[in-house]
Amino acid sequence: MATTLGKNNSGASSFESVGRSIPRVEARAKVTGKAEYVHNLRLPGMLYGKVYRSTVAHARIKGVDVSAARMLPGVHAVYTAADIMKLVPDPHYGPAFHDQPVLAIDKVRHVGEPVALVLAADPHVAEAAVQMISADYEELPAVFDEIEAMTSKAVVHEVLKPAGTFPDLKHLKGKRDTNIALDFHLRRGDAQKAFAAADHVFEHTFRTQQVLHVPLEPFVTVADPTPNQLVIHTASQSPSFVRIEIARLLGWPENRVRVKVPYLGGGFGAKLYIKLEALVAIAALLAGRPVKISLTMEEQFYQITKHAATLRIKSGVSRDGKILARECEVWWNGGAYADIGPRVTQKSGFTAPGPYDIDHVSIDSYALYTNLPAAGALRGFGIPQLVWAYESHTDMIAKALNIDPLAIRRKNILREGRPQATGTLMRDAGIEQVLERLARRMQWEKAFDHEGSDNDKGTIRRGRGIAIGFKASISPTTSVAIVNVSADGSVMVNCSTVDMGQGSDTAMAQIVAEALGIPVEAVTLVHPDTDVTPYDMATLGSRSTYHMGHAAKLAAEDARDKLVALAQEVGLSAETTPIPDIFRKKYGMQAGNIVGVGSFIPPYTPPEPGTGQTPDATPFWMIGATGAEVEVDTETGEFKVTRLVNIVDVGRPVNPAIVETQISGATLMQLGFTLSERMEFDAGQVTNASLADYKIPGIRDVPAVMENEAVDMVQKSGPFGAKGVGESGTFGVSPAIASAIDDAVGVRLTSLPLTAEAVYRGLRANAGRPLED
Amino acid sequence: MNPFELAEPRTLKSAVKLLDAGDESVRVFGGCTALMLMMKTGVFQPTRLISLRGIESRYSKVTSAGDGSLRIGALTTLGALGRFTAVKKRAPVIVDTLRTLSNVRVRNVATLGGHLAHADPHMDLPPVLIALDAQVVTAATAGSRTLAVADLFTGYYETALARNELISEVVVPARAGRRAAYVKLTTRGADDWPTLGIAVSFVTDGKVLTDARFVVSAATEKPLRLASVEAVLNGATVDDALLARAGEAAAAEAELVGDARGSAAYKTELLRVHAGRALRKALAA
């Protein structure tokens, strides 16, 4: 393959590689079962770890008896916190707070918290030994509800311990006897005054339930203590973070910890920061042998979840439907450990008023500790909870004022160039384009037939709804990439972006191929390995295409410049000479490399404390809208989503086919959170911790008609006009369906999930005969 | 999972002998779909498992007798069951029920005998077989006996089978003009255990119903015939009022249990409405 550098097309508007739906580079390996996953990794001498977990939600640990387990033949070791602390005196970790112990110390704070670890060469022996461990607890009052946690006497953490990473958490250091892990406030204009002057004031409260990611590959980590390094093979979305945090815990330099990540069987925000890595790393060092822990599907329910939330919204509205003022209070149920919850509180908090142009805004957003499994990032980072509330609220206002749902949105949406609640001006944010495209595809302005089309004795009523949401990218974050051109003209991209199914390997190859003007087939990706792939903040929040895309493009341009210089040095033209000939002329044979480096961090201004105002809150905005059509059985409340139309603004799609699967995947994931998924608890114990009892959507739950579209937009600041895509499909799903149900039968649901029973109870209440239990 | 002994007898007779009347940790399996889940979660820890897969092949077949009845070997997989021409012809309600019973991977290994003996009230075929007046034939060291499927279930995961007794066959009597239907209601997604199951059957000349069977499952501790509904139906002419009366009778008689799939009150409302719909489905069958 003798490739020649293409012409420099940085300023071009039509492209060779970007914008093409080339097949995913890993597709064949995956469907033939040859792709590499940590689950398949076995090392010589490896021990398997099984975790003994807390059975109570909140208690002081009076004692842990591991003697019988240690005696079981085949058991290599049993560790408790005391053993961990021999190696790491303060074994607390976390991205926002150093609040999570590697194994419980003195206290347990949720059911399922790891208390002890058994190591054995045979995982079944380790499992049997776990059954022989017992713990003696002095139970403490527990708090499960986020509103109660605001004032409860039950305190999950006696002292707050911010990690020091985020400036807006510093004021919480050493704070005692509170469950509030972050309070975020935004003030713009004077909401109270505007309420007084408004024609109408509406106030509603909404609830969302605790759910989880359910990657089909559960958490798995292997740690291998080699003579010079600790090598960690892990299914992680954040290899760089794992290296830094493990090095911090051990007091080692970064280069003595090596983190390798192959493909992931799904991540969705679950596999971020430290999950199993600290426990596995320390166990491997204590044992002096490689250690592997693979969680079962059931154990995943205690590892990380998505925040349940209570959201109160109050709006002052003029007679003709103009929103004049909005006040939002949001309480995020963060569970027993902060994980990245405080970021959800702030980063999502500031978009709580929705994609609307409102002069007077007040937001209070609280991250709360409770005695439930920890909550963190999950596809949307708090946004789906907020959109659920503000779009339901919007339609409730519209209905009360007898205004069409599309009309009220047209009247109020944030248009290009207008300031968002933070004061940041909207740039390249296709809110209007997305809304108008949705309206057209839904044929919103045509009459809609509410009667059932089938002949089910007239018991079916049809309805439709629309909803639109937006999200800021998490900022500021850094990505670094290396582009390595070999002497035959083939190219490797070293970057720590994790391909967890979203297709980033393919997208990065396309971006680098475009920047070099070479065929995409000439580019391969080096998977995250912190010894050879440089720093990346993490694969999260739809940031990789933009941030790593920029870094990869910069690295490719750097390589290109160096190649042009090399050609000049040997008296050749880089634009007409095949790349191998340039190297051969320089080195006399097929030898040498050109290494380009790119580093990217977007401009950012931190929000003012107290008011949350900033001129530069985010490098880009993600927009997503959904239209839903439903059929409701008026005799039973059973309903079916018959059509979902999902429209997003992703800038210029790097790979349109992958973009479409990202939209449909996000939408279906949110469909599960809307209709069927709910973690059920009894005194903090999950009572449906299995895929038989926790219902994710199956193929027969997919709506008969699903349409997914990215509107024609360009993110001018993005690499080749692109921006993030992974989450936008989630935004509008829940409120669009709830509004469609209301449109069909006049039942407005304000809690997720939306169940047939809730609809039925609403029908009965409307009829003046509430269903009695 | 702890180590256990695995026995693979070649005959039903020797399988029965390997059972131990006094030891709950000795169990037989056909497809092992249910037991395996219980073993993985530690709910069941066997000392000995007896695989029935190697026993006489006649227990994996369906035969039809001259009188129109079906004899189904207990080791017939649920997948195979739906593919036998005799079943399609003589008990189409079974084929219809199998379409939404679990998934193809489970159906291809799970057996009818295990499906019944497990006595999970959420299973789909028990109410259907009760509505068809089916019987089970059992094998034990003491000999063989026959009992109605309706009498097989004694409670939540409990059967009338002795610990050393196995189901060997299921007999479905001839249809003789009988129509039947099963309605599986799920409330948390299409692929779920039923919130409520309703199986109905009756004989009809096109207008008047006789010899009706009305069975509810899933929201009860075992599948139950509702006598008051059958009384409403027997001898009555089909019209909307009759179907409504059947629903009222069902809602009044059934004592349903609430769970994560729905409250008892809501399931009762589902029964009230879907009773008539199940009867209509049978009429159209």
Distance between the termini of chain B: 46 Å
Number of helices of chain A: 18
Work out the helicity level of chain B: 25-40%
- Count structural domains of chain B: 3
Instruction: Give the number of DSSP strands of chain A.
Output: 29
Topology at a glance:
The complex is a heterodimer of chains A (773) and B (285).
Chain A: H1 27-31, E1 47-53, E2 59-65, H2 67-71, E3 75-79, H3 81-87, E4 92-93, E5 100-101, E6 107-108, E7 114-120, H4 123-131, E8 134-139, H5 146-151, E9 180-188, H6 191-197, E10 200-208, E11 220-225, E12 230-234, H7 239-250, E13 257-260, H8 277-287, E14 291-294, E15 305-306, E16 308-317, E17 323-333, H9 341-348, E18 360-368, E19 375-376, H10 383-400, H11 405-412, H12 431-441, E20 460-472, E21 479-486, E22 491-494, H13 504-516, E23 523-526, H14 544-569, H15 579-587, E24 593-600, E25 621-633, E26 639-649, H16 656-675, E27 681-682, E28 685-686, E29 705-710, H17 733-745, H18 756-766
Parallel strand pairs in A: 1-14, 12-13, 15-19, 17-18, 22-23, 26-29
Antiparallel strand pairs in A: 1-7, 2-6, 2-8, 3-7, 4-5, 9-18, 10-16, 11-12, 11-14, 16-17, 20-25, 21-22, 21-24, 25-26, 27-28
Chain B: E1 5-7, H1 12-18, E2 26-29, H2 33-40, E3 48-51, E4 62-64, E5 70-73, H3 78-81, H4 85-90, H5 92-99, H6 104-107, H7 112-117, H8 125-131, E6 135-140, E7 143-148, H9 149-152, E8 153-155, E9 158-159, E10 165-172, E11 178-185, E12 196-204, E13 209-217, E14 224-225, H10 227-233, H11 240-253, H12 264-284
Parallel strand pairs in B: 1-3, 2-3
Antiparallel strand pairs in B: 4-5, 5-10, 6-7, 6-10, 8-9, 11-12, 12-13, 13-14
Helix pairs in contact in B: 10-11, 11-12
